[in-house]
Amino acid sequence: YYSGSLREAVQQAVARLEGAFAVVVISSTEPNSMIAVRKNSPLILGLGDDENYVSSDVQALIPHTKKVVYLGLAADILHEGHINVLLKAKTLGYVIVGLLTDEAISTYKKLPLLTFTQREIIMKNIKMVDKVVPQKTLDYRPNLIRYKPDFVVHGDDWRSGVQKKTRDRVIKVLKKWGGKLIEPKYTKNISSSLIKKEMSNII
Questions:
Q1: What is the distance between the terminal CA atoms of the chain, rounded to a whole angstrom?
Q2: DSSP secondary structure string, 114-136?
Q3: Fewest Cβ atoms nearer than 10 Å: which of 10, 22, 130, 164?
Q4: d(Cα 14, Cα 43) in Å, to the nearest integer?
């Protein structure tokens, strides 16, 4: 298909493809061009000062881009406390939110008012968030082992109570690659549970 324009050649070739795909094309005839195209398949762009990257998964970009930050959130009712933690996380690097599934949430508190899909849509549209992934258990370790973040950010309220064991596991697994736990001070007198309680009193 090439007849002087790499972009046009790729467009014509891609028009014949079927199913899901992610394709990156470079050519010696246009050494300063790189064309990436996708359909129903992940394709991540990493932009640098003098170099750019393309990958099908964020893990491949981690060694070449800014530091990776992980947060586990239920995010049923967003409030000031969530925003404070997200703002802190964004100052540290690329923010991945592990969004707890309904099943994960049910292991330590009542089911959320919003569905997972509804909560996911909200999180994906918050400017401090770069990527949203499911966290299928209260245990962070499966996702941490997969993404190997430089930092995990969580309010300091989990140092005691139902999530203390989860916190201890996070610290232990982060040590395997030198990751750090960052714990901003918990925003007092506000939580999703308190907001739900107040709402029930009004209704």
A1: 65
A2: S-HHHHHHHHHTSTT-SEEEEE-
A3: 164
A4: 15
**DSSP code per residue over 61-82:** HGGGSSPEEEEEE--SS--HHH
pLDDT digits (tens, 9 = 90+) for 149-175: 999 999 998 898 888 999 999 999 999
As a 3-state breakdown, the chain gives helix, strand, coil percent values, each rounded to 5, of: 35, 20, 45
Best CA proximity match to 68, nearest among 193, 180, 173, 202: 180
- The whole-chain average pLDDT of the chain stands at 86
DSSP state at residue 50: S
C-beta of residue 151 within 8 angstroms of C-beta of residue 182? yes
**Of 190, 197, 155, nearest in space to 78 by CA:** 190
Token pair belonging to 9: 């050649």
**Backbone φ and ψ of 142, nearest 5°:** -55, -45
- DSSP H or E run through 58: helix 58-61
